[in-house]
């Protein structure tokens, strides 16, 4: 399927302000199931663009605005081919078929911080909640992860949250609600408490079953590393496994590291008068 993603971000100010560099994570991650055909970043000539890669291999576009402005609009248009299967089959190493299993020494070194749960007062609460999904002393690894993935929706109510940042996993459990990024962060932390290597993913959701007026959105989910199978996608917000309907853009240790657009300005808080974001993912 060929898809076109249009991601618009607009900022408005009450007077011209000096704009700081804006960091964009908007380039779809090419792979076996996704091919990037075209990418255009349009600021109406207001900014220059510099490209770099971060420590996770994500493509970062940094926008530099040389002139003060009272409004900016950033329009990103990406065209991709996407053919992830709706019901993927994973070839997992034999010694990892059953949980618990041990990663090799090399994998543990390379996974590093992706194995480490978030510290804090609520860490044991999250750990105990995660252990509740383990059926016995020896259980099927993929079934355990699917149970954890399916177990968030009954416990955590999804809600749109406009506030910046991501809730701590223990806070999401206590509130019993959160946005997609909060739910993904809880899933990742719970998986790490169980000994899995896990990372956060940000990108876009394409759901053809939604209305034609709103067929896409930004989204956050998780990936778990299993030997031989590699990184397996889990979307606890929708209880889905695999990349179908998901367009990955960036991966990181924590979801707060991969916000699509970040930046600032020099001025007072009252100078900012509004921000709008729209995302459309269209087939064809």
TrEMBL record:
Residues 172-238 form the Transglutaminase-like domain. InterPro entries: Bac_transglu_N (IPR013589), Papain-like_cys_pep_sf (IPR038765), Transglutaminase-like (IPR002931). Coiled coil: none annotated. SMART domains: TGc. This is Transglutaminase family protein. It comes from Sphingomonas montanisoli.
